[in-house]
From TrEMBL:
The keyword Transmembrane applies. The chain crosses the membrane at residues 36-54, 60-81, 93-113, 119-137. It is a multi-pass membrane protein. InterPro entries: EmrE-like (IPR037185), Small_drug/metabolite_transptr (IPR000390), Small_multidrug_res (IPR045324). It comes from the Bacteria. One of its GO terms (cellular component) is plasma membrane. PANTHER family: GUANIDINIUM EXPORTER (PTHR30561:SF0), SMR FAMILY PROTON-DEPENDENT DRUG EFFLUX TRANSPORTER SUGE (PTHR30561). Keywords: Cell membrane, Membrane, Transmembrane, Transmembrane helix, Transport. GO terms for molecular function: transmembrane transporter activity. The keyword Zinc does not apply. Belongs to the drug/metabolite transporter (DMT) superfamily. Small multidrug resistance (SMR) (TC 2.A.7.1) family. Gdx/SugE subfamily. This is Guanidinium exporter.
Amino acid sequence: MICMFYSTLLHLGGRPPSKESRWDDPTLDKVERNKMAWAILILAGIFEVIWAYSMKMSEGFTKLTPSIVTIVFMILSVVLLSMSMRTLPLGTAYTIWTGIGAIGSFVVGILILNEPMTAMRMIAAVLIVSGLVLMKLSSN
């Protein structure tokens, strides 16, 4: 799945994909590896939102299907995070990963679970996003 995702991104970037291509291939230039690491990190963050939501739906792991979805996406999310850390600094990768999960879960809570959207929660979300933007800008 990751190789297909990577090949698609390379193809969209104008470089024809090859069967041997890997996102961490040392023959790729640093910019391509960095872009791919960020794409993988974003996907890991999205998977974190999925497992957080499915964990809520599992009602304390008492429902089988959401429990299985939680475990599968937890594993996928952590594996992708670790892959991105081959290129990105630990502090940056982990902060962005948890931030995507926090903001994504916040949005899912409001839009799907009808959780309250208070001014204080919105300010907190803006501060988290601001921190994520600063972290990304500091990693260049």
